[in-house]
Amino acid sequence: MPDTALALQTLVQHHQALGLNSHVEPHAMPPDDSPYAIAYAAARRLGFIPADADCIAQAWQRQSERTGRFDPTAWPCEPSDFGLPPPQSAGGFAPAPSALGLYAVLPDAGWIGRMARAGVPTLQLRFKSTDAEAIRAEVRAAVAAVAGTPAQLYINDHWQAAIEAGAYGVHLGQEDLDTLAPEDIERLRASGLRLGISTHGYAEMCRAAALRPSYIALGAVFPTTLKAMPTPPQGLARLAAYAWLLRSWPTVAIGGIGLEHLNAVAATGVGSFAVVRAITGASHPEQAAQALMAAWARARGAQT
């Protein structure tokens, strides 16, 4: 094993240079020279939350065992080092397209219908209410609004109503997973609906992947005021690392993304992108959607 202090310094400086973090936070020296201890200390210095630092350190330990050496410049990026299953392995959810294109997150069925008619390929109804009947009615209206269009509709949170209405899929956050019993997950899987899951770092990605969902959302890429985030903005460098790790999965970047970001977002290798205010806050939403789709097609084309 290398000198502990030198290995730690090398790891931190190397990944700072890659742009994974803009600053280094103080953190204690690792208690030993194991790959796990050094990687955990480095990840904490690089600003990763404890759960993500633990996930990174475990991956680094597995990588070192697999390769027979500890290299502080070789950030783990193999799915097997993170314990990730193949995306289409047995017991998984129904598959989604590998590239979902523009993914518009919208507040009600009226918006869903407008964007379906505008040609947006992937839509999500994020309807906020505590009234169960209002939720069921809105979900039914949203499903009806995409009928006869190619749009694929995901329902945020309200998975029972989505099953009843025959939606294409559902999207769940980490807090939603906390409320689901194993039998709920099995019912959702057996329904044939697609499942998307929000993640905000390595630990949540590993948790999501264990369920073999249809796609994994990665965020928040940039600052957003739409909801409280459990982690700071991930940034483009981390997004690229996540996209490479999940290169066999359909992925969606989300959080503060606008037209001006699409070239940089596409360059990370992520499969698609989601927006909220870039459409709902636009003075001409249909035109904004067309501009986003055209820009994304150009950006993706430049990567091939």
UniProtKB/TrEMBL annotation:
Alphabetical list of InterPro entries matching this protein: Aldolase_TIM, ThiamineP_synth_sf, ThiamineP_synth_TenI
Protein name: Thiamine-phosphate diphosphorylase
Signal peptide location: none
Alphabetical UniProt keywords: Magnesium, Metal-binding, Thiamine biosynthesis, Transferase
Listed GO biological process terms: thiamine biosynthetic process
CC per GO annotation: cytoplasm
CDD domains, A to Z: TMP_TenI
Domain Thiamine phosphate synthase/TenI: 111-279
Magnesium is among the record's keywords: yes
Pathway(s) per entry: Cofactor biosynthesis; thiamine diphosphate biosynthesis
Gene3D superfamilies, alphabetized: Aldolase class I
UniProt KW Secreted keyword: no
Transmembrane segments: none
GO molecular function: metal ion binding; thiamine-phosphate diphosphorylase activity
Source organism: Tepidicella xavieri
